[in-house]
Amino acid sequence: MTLPPLDSPQWHGSLRAFGWGLRATSATILSVVLFVTFIGIGALAHDTHFSMLWAILSTVLVWAGPAQIILVSTLGSGQTILQSAIAVTMSAIRLFPMVVAVLPLIRGPKTKRRHLVLIAHFTAVTLWVECYRFLPHVPRERRIAFVHGLGSGLMGVALVATIIGYLLAANLSQTFGAAVLLLTPLAFLFSTLRNAKELADVLALGLGLVLYPLAARLNSGVDILVSGVVAGTLAFAVHKWREREAA
Amino acid sequence: MSDFIGDWHALAVLLIAGVIPNQIWRLLGLWFGSGLDEGSDLLMWVKAVATAILAGVIAQILVQPPGALASVPWGLRYGAVVAGLAAFLASRRSIFAGVVCGEAVMLAGKWWLG
Lengths: 247, 114
Known about the structure:
The structure holds two protein chains of two kinds.
Chain A: H1 14-24, H2 30-47, H3 52-62, H4 65-76, H5 81-92, H6 95-106, H7 117-122, H8 125-134, H9 143-168, H10 174-195, H11 199-215, H12 223-246
Chain B: H1 2-5, H2 8-33, H3 41-63, H4 74-90, H5 95-113
């Protein structure tokens, strides 16, 4: 799909921009990844004995694949609410810098914070990747409407998939279930790598992958936080050190 | 209908353990985002830590796999990711190529192991 030129009358009106955002959902392979991932999440919710409404609300209100998988699998394995909440909140820290990075692409001089609430909610890895790709081709004053369309489209895809996955769960083979669950790590790894602009991002990713299995031996309950802070700080230190070398 | 809704306790848990701990970071981003310079040291550090935590989440799913993924032997799980990474790099950073190759290796391996 090619978006109309920036000065085209096709961009007149927010509704049209919303429509282009909605249509952009079909122009990204990440929609397919999203669809299959949420089939897995729906099936996982079913197999862990949560209700259909629970699965639907988790997709609409949490809107973050890893957090949903962690929530279902920790609660399902009998961990306490507090342990689940800690695991979820750690996986969600990434959303903070993501929102901080996405909003300047969308904000105009007259934009108020409340106009951006829904965009902050839609922000997740897929939207983050696609904003970098699409937004340069969208007039700035139409970007809020465009991203509302894109976010609604992506959430619609995920919602339908959650419901299908939930309904089909009993009929899914173990191999299919495994393939679906493998999608999340693969998609997250490659999406993050593709958007990595600095050496620090790549280093943080690599060190985080390597250090987690070590930190997991501590069995502290906050292993991900330990490996994340250590790996992230190391990556940041290397970045600063290189900057100083270059100066 | 009650099957559809389930019990209210589980929905409350969703809110407390899922929605709030997750949304708090988006709200913080919305709140403080406008005051932060994208190139500031603080944000660089937060970004690096967030990326490393995401890497931890990826590693956790591979090392301590949930649900059906646990039926795939560890060597095959790691091998599939490495193969996907190779395809991703060889295809000049195509997410699609990486994902398809990783999945294909996992499925082929599982089929071959029987």
